[in-house]
Design brief:
The chain is of the alpha+beta class. The chain contains three helices and four strands. A hairpin with a 4-residue loop joins strand 3 and strand 4.
Length: 127
């Protein structure tokens, strides 16, 4: 696929999980419920033949609105209160992919970036 366009929204979130690994390593400990800056990104892949006469494949504004709605939900209270599973970035990224894939043609990935602590988690479905 020669094109991948990604759309990103940034928000503050409270994952709600402590960080015993960081504590054991003597690093700054995450406080349960602490807000972090998160970037939610989704990528859409497509081929040259998918381009319209106008030179684009999909409406990035529509995807941005979908991601903003998810950002509002993810930013409204601890993730531990929102999901029936342990809300690691990995599991939340996979969950969001599952929610978006049916309504976003060509969805290639969903990524959560923890901008406060400097990590990215990208969910790519099995080929």
């Amino acid at each position: 696929m020669p094109f991948v366009v990604d759309v990103c929204v940034v928000f503050r979130a409270s994952q709600g999980l402590p960080s015993p690994v960081r504590a054991a390593a003597g690093q700054q400990r995450l406080v349960s419920g602490e807000d972090v800056e998160v970037a939610l990104r989704a990528g859409v892949g497509f081929e040259d033949d998918d381009l319209t006469e106008r030179g684009w494949f999909f409406d990035t504004d529509a995807l941005s609105a979908r991601l903003a709605a998810w950002a509002d939900l993810l930013g409204d209270g601890p993730w531990t209160n929102r999901f029936p599973f342990r809300p690691t970035f990995e599991l939340v990224a996979r969950h969001l992919y599952g929610e978006l894939v049916a309504v976003v043609p060509g969805l290639a990935f969903v990524e959560l970036e923890d901008r406060t602590y400097g990590s990215r988690t990208r969910y790519l479905p099995a080929a």
